[in-house]
Amino acid sequence: QNRGKREVAKYLKNNIGNLPFLGIGHKFIGSDEDRMTTFRAIAAESNRNDGITSFWLGNHLFVTITDPVEAEAVLKNCLEKDSILRFVKALIGNGSIFAPVSIWRPRRKVLAPTFGLRNLNQFVNVFSEQSNIMADRLAEASDKGTFSIWKYMTSYTMDSVGETTMGTKLGIQKQDNHPFLVKFERLAELVVARTLMPWLHTDFIYKFTPYYKISIEMINYMTSFVRKIIKEKRKAIEDGSNKKDAIDEQNNGTGRPATKCLLELLIDYSGGDKGYTDLELQEETMVMLLAGTDTTAVGASFVMVMLSKHQDVQEKVYQEVLEVMGDEERPVSAEDLPRFKYLDAVVKETLRLYPPVPITARETDKDYVLPSGRKIVKGTGVIIHIWGTHRNPKYWGPDVEVFRPERFFDLQLAHPAAYMPFSYGPRNCLGYQYATMSMKTAVATLVRRYKVLPAEYIVQDGDKPLRVKYDFMMKHVDNFQVQLVRRK
Ligand code: HEM
């Protein structure tokens, strides 16, 4: 098998500096920005090399793909995630996102319909209410010059995800340094650090570090929080008080049926009492908290930064928001969202250039022959390079680096996987519509109230690319800094 891998590495050679034994391991040492720079170099190499390249990380071979035809073949046939992701498992156990295929497949069948559009449309009220809380909080920041909008977005998405997945108002936007947010972020940091530092991979060594105790403590806090809510939900369903809430809400004059949170939908769709166990519900709730919060906050923050850099684009978004919503100040509704067509293109173009998840990985369970005839052998890590695919000039033309939302009008993609911020194929992101709705609601609400300007220290840099870093997700090195000015 190793001979097979060496052969693959030989014909998929890269020119970015393999060392004996280390491979390109030394290129991942350094800052988060250095790491992203390495991933970018790999993407560029792959695009020069007809959409594919490979590199060694120690003795693990990774094939990197930036061609959608090749990517599709892998994503449709090879469903096992790469073992490098195993440290997240301490938190989510067999939660679908990184579960082995045998566990993932039946769970996906239950999870997919819970994310149906009818269910999601009910959540727009939550996104809208939480966006307005964010807009109120930002009034204070808008007088103070340059600041990081990301912090506000993270609290917004955490509160929205909390309410839509667990039916619980976490109130993170209303309390600075809320323990749930602090612990959640610290834990994410620890998991990332462990994944990226191979000497912490062995349990035997990790248990001697101070991080071990802290991470166990955080995991216990998060899981017992979620478990308590599951117990309460079950009880409410049993004694019918969840239905009472529904009636109360109708009587409150909203006239719409009460929102069922994703957790309740999961209980229903998996078969009620006979359906998912508390542990299964806990694992999937953790997946949604983990997969749905930072990703969406990072995406929406990139949109705000791009709007600050492109005032002409922002003006068009603003005019569209006024046109759709009219003059009266009212919350964004589910009916408004599909009418924000230009905003939709702006969100898409932002996620093309700055996909919050810039790479995803699979591990081959057997030898594969790709559509181009190139072979990959069993046990190889395959990096589906989303960033690189979105910058493949063969599919996007010569202006790949230019921010041009209009390209999404009547776009005829040469291949559907040429655009995949939410990945592609049977294991793609389940929350893509949820995320788009949440981002559009937040951005429309903010743009209606504020004009977004670039950070003070930035002088007209138009199409200059943003500096980005990688810590499992791709973020802005300058922390998504902008300025806000209240519109009259
Ligand atoms: C801009 C925001 C988001 C981005 C960029 C994003 C991206 C991704 C990506 C790249 C994957 C991995 C797919 C693969 O390996 O092929 C994924 C998986 C997943 N995401 Fe998202 N996501 C976002 C928001 C959300 C939200 C809001 C939710 C739920 C509330 C969510 C739930 C999931 C789930 C459950 C999976 C696992 C699906 C499976 O394995 O069957 N995501 N996401």
Question: How would you characterize the overall build of this protein?
Answer:
- The structure is a single chain.
- This protein starts with a helix and ends with a strand.
- The protein is globular, with a radius of gyration of 23 Å.
- With 488 residues, the chain is α+β, with helices and mostly antiparallel strands.
- Strand 1 and strand 2 (60-65) form a beta hairpin.
- It has 20 helices and 11 strands.
- 52% of the residues lie in helices and 9% in strands.
- The protein has a single domain (2-486), classed as Cytochrome p450, CATH 1.10.630.
- The model has no long low-confidence stretch (mean pLDDT 90).
- The site of protoporphyrin IX containing FE (HEM) has 24 residues, from helix 5, helix 14, helix 15 and helix 20.
What's the topology here?
Layout: H1 2-11, H2 32-48, E1 52-57, E2 60-65, H3 68-77, H4 89-92, H5 101-114, H6 117-121, H7 124-141, E3 147-148, H8 149-166, H9 179-196, H10 203-206, H11 210-239, H12 241-254, H13 262-270, H14 278-292, H15 294-309, H16 311-325, H17 341-353, E4 359-363, E5 368-369, E6 375-376, E7 381-385, H18 386-389, H19 393-396, H20 432-449, E8 450-454, E9 468-470, E10 474-476, E11 481-486
Parallel strand pairs: 2-7
Antiparallel strand pairs: 1-2, 3-11, 4-7, 5-6, 8-11, 9-10
Helix pairs in contact: 5-13, 7-8, 7-20, 8-14, 8-15, 9-11, 11-14, 15-17, 15-20, 16-17
What's the short story on this structure?
The chain has 488 residues and is α+β, with helices and mostly antiparallel strands.
Structural class: alpha+beta
Tally of DSSP β-strands: 11
Q: Per CATH, what is the topology? A: Cytochrome p450
Domains, number = 1
Radius of gyration: 23 Å
Second-tier CATH architecture: Orthogonal Bundle
Placed side by side, the strands forming the largest sheet appear as 1-2-7-4
Shape: globular
What is the CATH H-level superfamily?
Cytochrome P450
Largest sheet: 4 strands, mixed
Rounded to the nearest angstrom, the distance between the terminal CA atoms is 67 Å
Pfam family, one: p450
Protein name: Cytochrome P450
Cofactor: heme
Organism: Chilo suppressalis (Asiatic rice borer moth)
